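Q: May I have one protein plus its fold?
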Amino acid sequence: MTARSLCWIVVLASITTLSFRYSDTAAARSAGEPAVERFTCETADGVTLVGDFYPPGKGKGERGPCVILLHAVGPGRTSACRADFGRLPQLLQHEGFAVIAFDFRGHGDSKTIDPLRYFELYPPARPQTNQAAAHKLDSREFRTSFELALMANDLTAVKVWLNKQNNLRRCNSHNVALVGVEQSGLVALIFAINEHRDSNRLLEFTGSRQNAESRFEGDDLVALVMLSTADRLGADRLDPGWLQTWLPFTQARRLHLLTLYGDEDALAKEFWSRAATWFRGREKESTPGLTRKPIKGTSLAGLKLLDHEVFGAREELLKFLTDKLQTPNVKWSEHKGNQHPMLINLPRILGGQ
């Protein structure tokens, strides 16, 4: 084969690929799918996050429940970003969900910081000799369980941004599910725990703490999906005592929990088999608790498991989100508080206090 022939094959392949992408996009637009919107928001510790917002389809507006997608983090996942979800956000949008996919700090487009605020809280291990680097984060800097748990602050900032969209009647941020991939599932769990344990996170609906309703921001969380999540955060294996406290907490707070993992994924299988004993009694499908869905015949993990058509993990995810968020049809109301939340109280959570 000549070099010229090979060149033409590459060109034709590129044209074919672009044609499929165009037809896919055109079909979505003709079906009335709203356009995706890029957004930015800032965390309480000075990190600028970048993400995409997919308004709910099918004309739902304020009735659209919200799904927040969390890409993988941790060892071997330093190049992960929101783009890894592919067409999943559009699929969920088409089903009537408002969807957010964002880049965690240090990943993708979320690398810019306010160095004065950030390094006041987390002094660098060595002097910053490069001025440009002093304003940037790198995902490779997040290795330990404490460093990765800091990403729960990103979820707090995203939820505040989502509450503002709620008040514009573009979605219902009182009806939220988190979908965490691998270690980001534990970041989501830490976020959920903090939302219920920190008294400073009480919503001030009436404008004064004395008369405030006894309701936490975390009450907006209806469901949590942990995809191929084991008991590792960073390079660390988490204290079993912490997890034995954290996971049943979701049941006490009436948070529906789904775990999806390959039956031949040894780490996830061992963890969730043990974790199942920490939940009280045998839960019915319709009540809050733990729903385990081991996918037989595979060791695939994370988005590789979710994207594989044979194993049906994506169908399980969609069914769960529809049952837990769409069916109850949580009533919309305005968010009146929590626009300036505090940082996650990590010492208390990781210290098991």
User: Anything to note?
Assistant: The first helix runs from residue 3 to 30. DSSP finds eleven helices and eleven strands in the chain. The chain has a mean pLDDT of 83.
